[in-house]
Design goal:
This protein is an alpha+beta fold. It is built from 4 helices and 4 strands. The strands form 2 sheets. A two-stranded antiparallel ribbon has the order 1-4. It has a two-stranded antiparallel ribbon with strand order 2-3.
């Protein structure tokens, strides 16, 4: 996989990384129509790609297993580079 494909980011990824760059803590109210569990999955995916720091201890769950909170999170060097690179490309289509 080439470097450009490794960090191909969707608009949703960029929005999440932008919030993570500010140390955001995500809550269910931050979720879009696909729900908070999907948001948590997206955050884990970005973490697994090495773009943000968000260890498992930063996830809060209810007794029934639903996620209540994720964060605070911050960008890795690779995440900052990917976000800066994306911003240099100009407005996203």
């Amino acid at each position: 996989m080439t470097a450009s494909r490794a960090f191909a980011l969707s608009d949703a990824d960029i929005r999440l990384l932008t919030r993570c760059a500010q140390g955001h803590t995500f809550r269910p109210a931050d979720a879009e129509e696909d729900g908070f569990e999907r948001l948590v999955d997206r955050l884990r995916g970005l973490r697994d790609r090495g773009l943000l720091r968000l260890d498992e201890g930063r996830f809060m769950k209810a007794k029934d297993g639903r996620h209540l909170m994720a964060g605070p999170c911050d960008l890795t060097d690779a995440g900052r580079h990917a976000l800066d690179r994306d911003r240099r490309l100009g407005p996203r289509a």
